[in-house]
Amino acid sequence: MEKRSIAAILSFSVVAVFFMFTVLLIHPFGNPVSTEMDDDIISNAQTDTGANNAVTSVVFDYRGFDTLGEATVLFTAVAGVVMLFRRIKK
Amino acid sequence: MSGMSKIVKTITSISIPFILIYGLYVIAHGHLTPGGGFQGGAIFASGLVMVLVAYGSVWTMEKIKEKNLTMLESLGAFCFILIAFLGLVFGTVFFNNYLVGSNSIFGTVPAAGSGLADINTAGVIPLMNFAVGLKVIAGLFAIVLVMAYAISKKEEK
Amino acid sequence: MIFNFPFIAVAALIIVGLYAVVFRKNLIKMIIGITIIESGVNLFLITLGYREGSIAPIYTSSPGGIMSLPVPQALTLTSIVIGVAVLALMLSLVIHIYRHYNTLDVRKIGGDEE
């Protein structure tokens, strides 16, 4: 039991130190590196989809399959919760 | 949970229409302003959860069965996939935005650049917003309702 | 000019959540830790898409200027909804575990009695 907690503390501190170093060495805030796809979406979203809101045009038009998977996940969660509590309700 | 005091119930009854109207506004203007089906559905479901907290889960379960809620959720998912398949029928591919550029409902294309809000734009995006909004409303409220009802049953025993 | 402060906030959120997941023994507190990690990941996605001095990518009466990237924001929306779904399932399972074992201590649930 003692050995296990020591190992947990050690590995947790290693992970924390690595996170902090990564965050300090990442590219500076406010300057994303490769933005060609997003620039194309921003300049063409109004003529392609007719929506003024570029985020909505990405969610429902350019990346509709992502939204389909998201809807499936939500459906699965609702079905799982209702199934888990069905026996108790009676 | 068997309902809260009379003050809470009265305040809930007064303020519930504004919350629901605001949620529907966020859903309907999803292609123009910040928002959309998910966010507006979350606002609408939060308003319904306020009713659930104020009046108690047993009373709410008598008014709205969770079977109806799951049916509404399936209806929203079905409408979403149906609109996506209509893109295959009227256009070229799955999820094709076939309404934009045509002269039917939601068909106009706005002028490029900054402009005023015109709700009659964006093709199938508003329809998908409504389908996803219905799905999120029914789904989130069904989750909270079923969990609250199960816990109240435990307390009565 | 704020130096990498948003990224440091992301790392702090993830470390705090990881601490709660690793060292707490209560299931509810572990779930709180998981949601904190999730908030850190969402903040990281939003932060990656920000350009200096940019506005939101919405054309309705926008003041003009460069816009921040729309794709990370859309994926963050997906991530938030999936987080809600996963949270609901985790809480339902925890309710069932509490009814079965009458405790939320992970040392007494898993048969780890040494």
Give short descriptive properties of this protein.
heterotrimer; B: 157 residues; mainly alpha; 5 helices; 68% helix; 0% strand; elongated; C: 114 residues; Helix Hairpins
Radius of gyration of chain B: 19 Å
How does the helix and strand content of chain C classify structurally?
A: mainly alpha
Strand content of chain B: under 5%
Please name the two chains that share the biggest interface, counting residues whose Cβ lies under 8 Å from a Cβ on the partner chain.
Answer: A-C, 43 and 46 residues
Describe this entry's structure for a reader.
The complex is a heterotrimer of chains A (90), B (157) and C (114). Chain A is mostly helical and 90 residues long. Chain A has one domain (2-89). Chain A has 5 helices and no strands. The radius of gyration of chain A is 23 Å and the shape is flat. The mean pLDDT of chain A is 84. With 157 residues, chain B is mostly helical. Chain B is built from 5 helices and no strands. Chain B has helices at residues 6-28, 37-55, 57-63, 66-90, 125-156. Chain B is elongated and about 55 Å long. Chain B starts with 5 loop residues before the first helix and ends with a helix. Chain C has 114 residues and is mostly helical. Chain C has one domain (5-109): Helix Hairpins (Orthogonal Bundle), CATH 1.10.287. Chain C is built from 4 helices and no strands. Chain C has helices spanning 5-23, 27-48, 70-101, 106-109. In chain C, α1 (5-23) packs antiparallel against α2 (27-48) and α2 runs antiparallel to α3 (70-101). The model of chain C has no long low-confidence stretch (mean pLDDT 85). Chains in contact: A-B, A-C, B-C. The interface between A and B is large, with 29 and 47 residues.
Write the layout of secondary structure elements.
The complex is a heterotrimer of chains A (90), B (157) and C (114).
Chain A: H1 2-25, H2 36-49, H3 54-62, H4 64-84, H5 86-89
Helix pairs in contact in A: 2-3, 3-4
Chain B: H1 6-28, H2 37-55, H3 57-63, H4 66-90, H5 125-156
Helix pairs in contact in B: 1-2, 2-3, 2-5, 3-5, 4-5
Chain C: H1 5-23, H2 27-48, H3 70-101, H4 106-109
